[in-house]
Design a protein that fits this description.
It is built from 22 helices and 21 strands. It is of the alpha+beta class. Among the domains are: 125 residues, Orthogonal Bundle (Transcription Factor, Stat-4); 128 residues, STAT transcription factor, DNA-binding domain (Immunoglobulin-like, Sandwich), CATH 2.60.40.630; 210 residues, SHC Adaptor Protein, CATH 3.30.505. Strand 17 and strand 18 form a beta hairpin. It is found in: Cytoplasm; Nucleus.
Length: 713
């Protein structure tokens, strides 16, 4: 709906504001009404600065008024004919300064928008009072409204500055004329002085009003900078931490960039307004000039707010990562890694002009044995809009690597805190300088803490450290985190574990699977929410089979060999032996389920229920299959070809229904190899390892040398 139509539907109180707005000759309401669509579709903001465009729009406006006049002649609307003719004559005074007309119309449109915004806000407040739970305005919508309000205030201030300059020019012209004229009549001279004094008084009031408006404008920008820096940016940084460890959060920076840029542009305009005030004072000043008294403080305030915004606008968009690593933030010496920085204040004129330099942290913890590194490779790049798909101002470093410095001894004040290599945290720093319109500000960004390893065997432990830190800490400068690491609550811990599967396979852990893991960690509890997991329990215990080693072994196996089956929900996975038996004994003979081994790292097994000769239900389990098996034959082919051999009987597959009651071939059929029997590409493995003798405990081989596991009741 057009803006003018919306205004026409406002409640009486806001229509009164509209009538008061148009109670002046600058833009008659009749013209606004009859040319509403055309007026709202023109680029008045650009015309206010572009003389040629302003000339064109003025000419078209006059032509539209002629068209309206002709229409009223045909309709014999004598009064409207007269009014339109008079309006056209009034607009012709802008022929010498068409940009003034553009600024005038722009000002009216902005004031209309303010009325609409006030009406919308009032309606929302009233609705909130009736339905508070339904009409909760999101912080994003609220921020958008504040941004729109800031832009409107800036445009109004622009108009105010123009009016102030015109007022000052009028006074200056009359004052200079008065000085040059030799007026002998004292009465006339006194009258002229009174007029000049009146102009000075008006100018003084206008300057005071302008300064007050600038203070209010800075109040608004400070509020927005506070929201952006202390809320929106902090929330984004936390989301980024979580996405680094698998959370499915949105970390796109495009919206933040729009907000940061909007506020920065407005603050630069404030600095221009202040420069304009200084220029005006240089031409005309007087005793107790408010600009001279207040302008320095306003300048300092504007510069401080702008610098605070700029210093927070330089961020690490993509955290350091190796091409073949387990995840981001684990780096290996002499192995290439990449990282991307971004400036959220986007000024196209700075494209390729701001150089970013990479270095390691300046201050390192005073810990005995704490390693130090140098960054090598292409360590300097310019921020540019080419390397970003969204056109953001980025510096994408793709060819960096780390080299350990030679040890320089312990030094004074060194602590003896025992940290392993994979508990050492390091930070990569990025420096640049923002220079624009006479302002120069040094900017620095830093990565999330990284763990630096020297060989691939340390990756698993290093990734555990990254998971733990980013799950629990929001202090991204805390390099001593593992000197006294806090425990994780079960809700935090369970969510992080689910993210690992979600990011690796697109399917997380359900409540039942998480409950089995909680039971493994804490035993039987009524409620696990108050339970906690210590760092030492997760990864640091002096045993080769810590919780993380067990869990990660399963995760790697699923990602490498079982991703499709897991994603489709065919693998129950995390279920205890006791729970498994209770589930299967309620089902028909031949029902089976797939679960991860609790004792074999990276092992998966299946159990099935069968009816004994005495009519009893018995649950049997096969020894876990590991990567040694799965690199030879897919797990679905194991399920398809698994057989039990009883002396004197034909071998048969006891696996008939996937829990709860899905026919095996319906569940796994689409994954089967086209060839079966002796033509199967896996026939050698099938004959040597998938033939079980029911009364024996080993998977039997028809040719010796492949005993591989047990069949147990």
């Amino acid at each position: 709906m057009a803006q003018w139509d919306r205004l026409g539907q406002l409640p009486a109180a806001f229509k009164q504001q509209l009538l008061e707005l148009y109670d002046r000759d600058s833009l008659p309401m009749d013209v606004r009404h009859y040319l509403a669509v055309w007026i709202e579709n023109q680029e008045w903001l650009r015309a206010a600065r572009d003389h040629d465009l302003a000339v064109v729009l003025l000419q078209v406006l006059l032509e539209n008024l002629d068209i309206q006049h002709s229409r009223f002649v045909q309709e014999e609307s004598f009064l409207l004919q007269h009014n339109i003719r008079r309006y056209k004559q009034n607009f012709q005074r802008y022929l010498d300064e068409p940009c003034d007309l553009a600024r005038t119309i722009l000002w009216f449109l902005e004031k209309e928008n303010e009325i609409l915004m006030s009406a919308d806000l009032t309606e929302q407040v009233q609705f909130l009072q009736v339905e508070p739970e339904i009409m909760e305005t999101s912080s994003k919508q609220d921020l958008e409204r504040k941004m729109a309000g800031l832009r409107n205030e800036m445009q109004c201030m622009e108009h105010t500055m123009i009016c102030l300059e015109e007022q000052q020019d009028e006074f200056d012209f009359k004052y200079q004329t008065h000085k040059m004229e030799a007026v002998g009549d004292e009465a006339v001279k006194n009258d002229q002085i009174k007029v000049l004094q009146g102009l000075v008084n008006r100018l003084d009031e206008c300057r005071k009003s302008t300064l007050s408006d600038l203070n209010k404008l800075l109040d608004r920008t400070e509020d927005l900078v506070d929201i952006l820096v202390k809320k929106e940016l902090v929330e984004w940084q936390r989301r980024q931490q979580k996405t680094c460890i698998g959370a499915p959060d949105d970390v796109c920076l495009d919206q933040l960039e729009k907000w940061f840029t909007c506020v920065a542009v407005c603050l630069f305009q404030v600095r221009e307004f202040l420069s304009k005030l200084e220029e005006l004072v240089g031409k005309v000043s007087y005793e107790n000039d408010p600009v001279k008294a207040q302008k320095p403080a306003l300048q300092r305030r504007a510069d401080t707010v702008l610098k605070d915004l700029l210093k927070s606008s330089f961020v690490v968009e993509t955290q350091p990562s190796m091409p073949q690593g387990k995840g981001p933030l684990v780096l290996r010496t002499n192995v290439q890694f990449s990282v991307k920085t971004r400036l959220l204040v986007k000024f196209p004129e700075l494209n390729h002009s701001m150089k970013v330099v990479v270095s390691m942290e300046r201050e390192t913890p005073h810990i005995k044995g704490y390693r130090r590194f140098n960054v090598l490779g292409t360590i300097t790049k310019a921020l540019n809009m080419v390397e970003s798909q969204s056109g953001g101002m980025v510096a994408d470093f793709r060819h960096l690597n780390l080299k350990e410095q030679k040890s320089g001894g312990s030094g004074k004040g060194v602590s003896d805190i025992p940290l392993s290599v994979t508990e050492e945290l390091h930070v990569i720093c990025f420096d640049t300088v923002f220079e624009l319109k006479g302002l120069s500000v040094g900017l620095q960004a830093s990565s999330l803490p990284v763990v630096i390893i020297s060989n691939s065997s340390q990756q698993q432990s290093a990734w555990a450290s990254i998971l733990w830190f980013n799950m629990l800490s929001q202090d991204t400068k805390d390099l001593m985190f593992f000197a006294n690491s806090p425990a994780a609550t079960w809700p935090q811990f369970g969510e992080m574990l689910s993210w690992q599967f979600l990011s690796a396979t697109k399917r997380g852990l359900n409540d039942a699977q998480l409950e089995m893991i909680a039971h493994r960690l804490f035993g039987n509890q009524m409620n696990y929410d108050t339970c906690t997991v210590a760092w030492s329990k997760f990864s640091k215990e002096n045993t080769p089979d810590t919780f993380w080693v067990w869990f990660d072994g399963i995760l790697v196996m699923v990602k490498t060999f079982l991703e499709d089956l897991w994603r489709e929900g065919l693998i129950m996975g995390f279920v205890s032996k006791g729970k498994e038996k209770s589930l299967l004994k309620k089902k028909q003979s031949g029902t089976f389920l797939l679960r991860f081994s609790e004792s074999v790292i990276g092992g998966i097994t299946f159990s099935w229920v069968e009816t004994t000769g005495a009519g009893q239900l018995n649950v049997k389990t096969v020894q876990p299959f590991t990567k040694d098996d799965l690199i030879q034959i897919p797990f679905h082919e194991i399920i398809r070809n698994f057989q039990i051999f009883e002396p004197g009987n034909i071998p048969e597959n006891p696996l008939l229904y996937l829990y709860p009651n899905i026919p095996k071939d319906k569940a796994f059929g689409k994954y089967y190899s086209e060839k079966s029997g002796d033509d199967s590409p896996y026939i050698r493995y099938i004959k040597t390892k998938l033939m079980f003798v029911s009364k024996e405990t080993k998977r039997q081989s028809s040719s010796s040398g492949f005993p591989n596991g047990t069949l147990s009741p």
